[in-house]
Fold this sequence. Notes:
elongated
Amino acid sequence: MGRPRAFDTDQAVAAAAVLFAAHGFEGTSVDDLVTATGVHRGSLYKVFGSKRSLHLTALRAHLEGEVGPAVEAVAAITDPGQALERAVATFDDGPAAGLLLLAAAERAPHDPEVAALVEEGVTALEDALRPSHGDAAAQLASTVLGARLRLRARPADPKEY
């Protein structure tokens, strides 16, 4: 019988999600994950199987813990202006779109599982905007997420360039 797990899986996934949201899948090394999670490389591989599997687990957790509550808050508002304002504040200024957008841009074109999870997140935002915006919900969701992506593309300090 093996030793009991010496780390909290949810905490490791949360730490990995932060790294993936900040640096993307390709920009996050296994050494980065080991350092951020405090979990030995062998234990990460034993529990998650691969960096890709950990990324998928982090993306699922992100959808559940960040995107889900964000879209529920948007869906609860029937006033179009207020619903859009909440979506912008949640997705442009909050954490809800970070990992979702990087996964969409970086991994979804090459990984069908990531593409399905990204589609789930985008569809959830569209569905949340539908009660207040009807047929314009899909376009508004794209606008909100596109604005967030544009904000992420800005350099942190313009003097560096």
